[in-house]
Write a structure and sequence with these properties.
Elements: H1 2-20, H2 24-50, H3 64-69, E1 72-73, E2 76-77, E3 86-89, E4 94-98, E5 111-115
């Protein structure tokens, strides 16, 4: 009886630890969300100073710190899967997105930050 109780406790503890252990995909998703928030903050600061959001990614005020912390391809930030982020400006609002783990736009795993 004691052995059964120990096995049950170990199984419960193992399942709790397994759920708490981040998977590589969850870690990439969290990193990409964090990156979108950092760039979104830079965009918001630019908006407060100028009254508009930049019209294209080349004009996005990405700080040296952000550039150092994230992968860039041709001056454009990439998500944690190495895919370029998509930035769309509507002058007074914007959308910044990642295609997510599957690399396909318009699917459930897309990660998006918008200001509207």
């Amino acid at each position: 009886m004691f052995c059964i109780a120990v096995v049950v406790v170990l199984l419960i503890a193992g399942s709790v630890l397994f759920r708490k252990t981040p998977s590589p995909e969850r870690a990439r998703t969290a990193k990409t969300r964090w990156m979108l928030e950092q760039i979104g903050t830079a965009l918001d600061e630019n908006y407060l100073m100028t009254g508009i959001y930049p019209t294209n990614f080349a004009a996005v005020p990405i700080s040296h710190e952000i550039r150092k912390q994230h992968s860039m391809v041709n001056g454009q930030p990439t998500d944690a899967w190495g895919q370029p982020l998509v930035y769309v400006s509507y002058v007074t609002n914007f959308s910044l997105s990642s295609a997510g783990a599957d690399g396909k736009r318009g699917t459930d795993d897309d990660i998006q930050l918008s200001r509207r």
